Amino acid sequence: MFSLSRWFDPGARRSDAAEVKLKQAYGAVFKGKPSRQQQDVVLSDLLSFGDLFTPARTDEDLVLREGRRQVAYRLFRFLELGDAERTATAVAAVTETLVSDGEGNI
After folding, report:
1. What's the CA gap between 17 and 73, in Å, rounded?
2. 38 Cβ contact list (under 8 Å, min separation 6)
3. pLDDT tens-digit readout, 20-65
């Protein structure tokens, strides 16, 4: 599974160039002909954004995160990934979450 963070070195993973690359991946997935890497990047980004791997801190935060989690779970449900692919996807999403926590969000 490929994540955005693998395209860039630490310190550049949340740069303008990374944002451009992420936008291109989303555009390809939803409007074009994506590569497998672009599909992986978008999926790992959506699952990271889905807050599957971070705790809520307030009731309001819990409501927001629960909505995001439902979208992430829906992706998992309809993609019907095998165990190895599901694990690789989760690792990629966790990686993106950790990078976002350390370097900021795109």
Report:
1. 29
2. 24, 25, 28, 29
3. 999 999 999 999 999 999 999 999 999 888 887 787 788 888 888 8
The count of other CB atoms within 10 Å of the CB of residue 92 is 23
- Return d(Cα 69, Cα 72) in angstroms, integer: 5
This prediction has a pTM of: 0.86
* CB environment 15-53: b (16+ within 10 A), e (fewer): eeebeebbeebbebbeeeebeebbebbbbbbbbbbbbbb
- Amino acid identity of residue 53, one-letter, is F
Which pLDDT belongs to residue 53? 79
Burial class (CB in 10 A: 0-12, 13-18, 19+), 104: exposed
